[in-house]
Design goal:
With 476 residues, this protein is of the alpha+beta class. The protein has three domains: 46-87 and 232-303, no CATH class; 89-228, Immunoglobulin-like; 309-471, Jelly Rolls (Sandwich). 29% of the residues lie in helices and 21% in strands. It contains nine helices and 19 strands. It has helices at 2-33, 43-85, 157-160, 206-213, 225-228, 245-256, 264-267, 287-305, 331-340; strands spanning 93-94, 113-121, 127-131, 140-146, 151-156, 165-170, 183-186, 191-199, 217-220, 312-315, 318-321, 350-355, 370-374, 386-391, 406-408, 422-427, 438-440, 447-453, 469-471. The strands form four sheets. The protein has a six-stranded antiparallel sheet, with no helix packed on it. Strands 1-2-8-4-5 form a five-stranded antiparallel sheet. Strands 7-6-3-9 form a four-stranded mixed sheet, with no helix packed on it. A hairpin with a 2-residue loop joins strand 10 (312-315) and strand 11. 36% of the residues are buried.
Length: 476
């Protein structure tokens, strides 16, 4: 009886297992014959996503390329304008008057020095720069910038120690013999901008300053056919900063003036939309790529114009920017200075501090009157001079009723207090009895730039605080 029960139990277990396995096997077999499940997204939607991804990638590339290339396009634009309206390539243009509100060669110009400038094409011949003896200890500098707006050299009264000098300016690939008594300056790019500044010591000094300026000369080292015929640079389209021509100009400038090798890792990323090797050709790009680049051209200019934030330090309303003049891989800083202060020099030659607000943070305006008080030990320490210029919101010299837009320490007219301190009045109308220390203000909002030419080393640093600009509440 017991043996029969065990047989019956075994048969029941086997039947139960078979019953459980059979549906699983049937399910597997059914799955093998069942039609495949449709893809979760229709092909049209996937193609739309692909196009959007291509556009977004081109947008990202376009923004980065715009920040990197902005100084190149500004250089091409400035070179085109100046070689056609000022002087041809490889020749100096000498200004014989101080800059006025009508001056548009560069943004944020000063009205305290004479400007001279020359755009060089060193692909055919080196150039010879000569500077004269300087017995009057007049401040001057010939600043040299590559096409990326990096300052690679200054020939100034600081470097010459008031002596005359001869300098051979040669492109990066030039090899040859340097003449006797001549210093070789090898440039990073074949396209170079020389911009000179010559101190004017008060109104009566202008003729002497002009005469000194014209003793700074430039001539080709080799008399080539190209050197014999005045050359100009092509005109850049008016919409170059907001149209696809931006990338074309950028690629052309990079092809003619290769960047440092370390920049290649960034430029290689642009190849998905901007061919640096063969030039930018919109007709060879997909519509999504064109759309992304055009969208970048809408947003990137604002990024450049607001690029000061990471690099600005503000004390008492005066902002200082770093780096200036030499930028390394800080491409946004380089682009912002090209936008707001093209050809800003290195701190060893010139330091800049800009103020938009008074001590309470209110915007400076011609409807109010202000006082700027320097204690004796707060005055800029310099081996040359300092100045304060007033600008409009477009960053050009402001129009004022007095037809003057600066005060400067070398004018011979400033009146100091008995303790050596200095009070400046900043307002539209001249302050009675204080006209000598008056900085005229324009209508509407304005901003000020304090410049220190040839600052004494270690007297001004990032933590330096100039006195605040305070609103005057007294009687006019």
């Amino acid at each position: 009886m017991l043996r029969n029960r065990k047989k019956i139990f075994t048969l029941l277990i086997s039947a139960l297992c078979f019953a459980l396995i059979l549906p699983v096997a049937s399910t597997v077999q059914a799955a093998q014959t069942k039609p495949p499940t449709p893809e979760p997204f229709p092909m049209a939607q996937r193609l739309k996503q692909l196009g959007q991804s291509q556009e977004d990638l081109a947008y990202s590339i376009g923004v980065q390329a715009y920040v990197y290339g902005y100084p190149l396009v500004i250089s091409a634009k400035t070179m085109g304008e100046m070689t056609q309206t000022r002087a041809p390539l490889n020749q100096f243009f000498y200004s014989e008057t101080l800059a006025s509100p009508a001056f548009r060669d560069i943004v944020t110009p000063n009205s305290d020095t004479l400007y001279m400038s020359a755009w060089l094409d060193l692909s055919q011949s080196p150039m010879l720069l000569k500077v004269p003896d300087n017995p009057q200890d007049r401040y001057y500098t010939v600043q040299m910038l590559d096409v990326y707006t990096n300052t690679f050299r200054n020939v100034s009264n600081r470097s010459t120690k008031q002596q005359s000098g001869r300098y051979m300016i040669a492109g990066p690939k030039w090899r040859g013999i340097v003449p006797a008594n001549t210093e070789l300056i090898q440039t990073p790019t074949d396209t170079v901008w020389l911009i000179g500044r010559v101190e004017v010591k008060g109104e009566g000094d202008l003729p002497q300053a002009v005469a000194f300026e014209k003793q700074i000369t430039l001539s080709p080292m080799l008399q080539t056919k190209q050197a014999a015929v005045p050359q100009v640079s092509p005109t850049i389209p008016a919409d170059a900063l907001t149209s696809l021509s931006f990338f074309q100009i950028m690629a052309e400038m990079i092809h003619k003036n290769p960047p440092p090798a370390c920049d290649r890792v960034l430029l290689d990323q642009f190849e998905a939309g901007i061919d640096m090797e063969h030039g930018f050709s919109p007709d060879k790009l997909r519509p999504a790529t064109i759309a992304g680049l055009k969208r970048a051209l809408t947003d990137a200019p604002q990024i450049v114009q607001n690029g000061f934030v990471p690099y600005t330090t503000v004390h008492n309303g005066w902002g200082s920017f770093s780096p200036v003049g030499i930028y390394g891989n800080q491409f946004l800083a380089r682009a912002f200075i090209a936008y707001s202060g093209l050809a800003a020099n290195v701190p060893e030659e010139e330091m800049y501090f800009r103020a938009y607000t008074d001590d309470r943070g209110a915007l400076l305006t011609g409807t109010k009157r202000y006082t700027l008080h320097f204690a004796k030990d707060q005055l800029p320490q310099t081996s040359a001079f300092w100045s304060i210029n007033v600008y409009n919101n477009q960053l050009y010299l402001a129009n004022t009723a007095a037809n003057r837009s600066s005060v400067r320490s070398n004018s011979g007219t400033l009146v100091y207090n008995s303790d050596g301190s200095l009070d400046l009045s900043i307002q539209k109308e001249p302050p009675p009895g204080k006209e000598a220390n008056w900085l005229p203000a324009p209508d509407g909002n304005f901003n000020l730039v304090l410049r220190v030419f040839a600052p004494i080393p270690d007297t001004v640093g990032k933590a330096h605080a100039w006195p605040a600009i305070r609103e005057s509440k007294g009687v006019k």
